[in-house]
Amino acid sequence: MANIDLNSDLGESFGAWAMGDDVSMLSIVTSANIACGFHAGDPAGILSVLEEAAKRGVSVGAHIGYRDLVGFGRRNMDPSSTELIGDTIYQIGALQGLAKAAGTSVRYVKPHGALYNTIANDARQAYDVITGIKAVDPSLALLALSGAPIVEQARAAGLTVVCEAFADRAYNADGSLVSRRLPGAIIHDPKAIAERMLRLVAEGRIAAVDGTDIELEAQSICVHGDTPAAVAIARVLREALATNRVDLKPFTEVDHG
């Protein structure tokens, strides 16, 4: 039986402004990427999500980002190495403290938004994030874009790297994600999403936006939690995987060598 992890970006509400249905999503996913306060999230809300994740046995990761609340961490930035290393350490450490209070622990790191996309190919910023992770806890896994240069860079630095695919995002032929600024970047049809992820699990392949097939290594599938139909999409995907005898389990419980 094949197995796969389902992850989602959670804990992104801020004060009176709600972002997604975290409680419902935690009943579906096996790993939760929890905001650390830089791109989204506030301490009380983050703690609440961590407590719910602990109650449900969902694996927890630090969803670190650029210091960009106004832009939701989706604006390109070029912090110095000193800044980025410090920001990485700070965010992981903050989440570790809240996680301990919630009765769980941080098991991995997944960068968010513009930081995620930048370090996929920018060796300097990738080095800074890798350095920050290792300074806190070198046993933390890094969740990264499948096929991107950072995968080998982080593995060469001694980190465990888990590759992910995006259920609801379109891909370019080179394996990069289609920019959110372009039409068709987000896929909204739950059935289409489920079908393409089933093929990915079975064949390791997915159709790019131009129709060509690309190969993707993936131990985890991300379903975004901030889209209007996020919970419905995640439920359909989980049911489709279970029906097709795909075992859902956190990647932190799988030996990645």
UniProtKB/TrEMBL annotation:
Asked whether the keyword GTP-binding is assigned, the reply is: no
Molecular function terms in GO for this entry? 5-oxoprolinase (ATP-hydrolyzing) activity; ATP binding
Alphabetically ordered keywords of this record: ATP-binding, Hydrolase, Nucleotide-binding
UniProt xrefs under InterPro entries: Glyco_hydro/deAcase_b/a-brl, LamB/YcsF/PxpA-like
Class of the enzyme per the UniProt entry, highest EC level: hydrolase
Q: Which CDD domains match?
A: LamB_YcsF_like
A GO BP annotation: carbohydrate metabolic process
- What Enzyme Commission number(s) apply to this enzyme? 3.5.2.9
What chemistry does it catalyse, as a reaction equation?
A: 5-oxo-L-proline + ATP + 2 H2O = L-glutamate + ADP + phosphate + H(+)
Is Hydrolase found in the keyword set? yes
* Subunit structure, interactors included: Forms a complex composed of PxpA, PxpB and PxpC.
Q: What does this protein do?
A: Catalyzes the cleavage of 5-oxoproline to form L-glutamate coupled to the hydrolysis of ATP to ADP and inorganic phosphate.
**Per the similarity annotation, which family is this?**
Belongs to the LamB/PxpA family.
**Protein name, UniProt field:** 5-oxoprolinase subunit A
- Organism of origin is Rhizobium chutanense
